[in-house]
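Review form for a predicted model. The reviewer records the input and the model, then writes brief findings.
Reviewer: anonymous (R2)
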Amino acid sequence: MPSLLMSLLIFVCTWQACHIIPDIAIQRLLSFLSDFFNALSAENVAIATISAAFPVSVYKLYRDIGFKKDNFTKYVICKKCYKLYNYDDCMHIIEGQQVSKTCQNIRFPNHPQIGRRKVCGELLLKVVQLQRNRKLYPYIKHFVISLWNLQFQVLFTFLNLKRTVKNGDQDDKKKVFLQMFTMDEFGKNIPRYREKQLFVYRERHYGLMINLDWFQPYEHVQYSVGVMYAVILNLPRNERFKLKNVVLIGIIPDMGKEPSLQTFLGPLIDELKSVWTHGFSSNSFQSKKDKQNFKLALMCVGCDIPATRKLCGFLGHGATLGCSK
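Model under review:
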């Protein structure tokens, strides 16, 4: 790649970081510059080299300058019991070669029958022989969960939440919540949330609604992907579900059959506890230089009936609670 083009790409990335410009704006800038260089290369042959090597997308821009921007945490899934593992914890070296570990999960550790307390023992990675070496890959595609801090930092930086909530209801910020939830009854039943001590009434405290749904991204192929995403309940209803205000939480790959969500909710619950108890530091639309502490709380789960039962653990009308003894 020409050094002049590399200098231009580094300037674009530095300009984006300094002025906190979203990726969609950089994408449009790259598309314009690519068309511009293509038009110049038709008249000047010397620019043809730059035009051919110029990246046309944000992904290629980061790839060319060696910048990895992956805001997701990937977990390896056991294909038998669906236990989650970090990729680095799934292998060990024996006689100079990487060998896959086995799943050490016990699904029923307190079961009265000894046969039910066995270790899973399933291999976590499969060996793929390449031309020069061999590499270990998961049997099932990764379970991907986003880093909430980075996702909401970008959202709070560009979104004027204080003004948006105020415009949604000119009289009082509290009415935005009372339209959807009976928070007054909630406050009466739980003393620690009464009146001004209510979580959502405090400054820089925001309520979340999580949705889980499955869809098929490919035509003529039976492959269902589960997607978890969240919206901010502080926003008015006309702004709440816009694509720019939706935060992607996690992606569940196709398992071949309907899996239990308990193992996939572990990282999500840990993240919810962290943002509820300690919060996270981020810039805001009002304060782009000084970081402030934000806190989030899960207040609603909005799904269809089957997904709600799996996500919240609700039983159907025909279900019975059997005795464990």
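Findings: Residues 166-173, 179-195 have pLDDT under 50 and may be disordered.
Further findings: The two ends are 70 Å apart (CA to CA).
Recommendation: see findings above.
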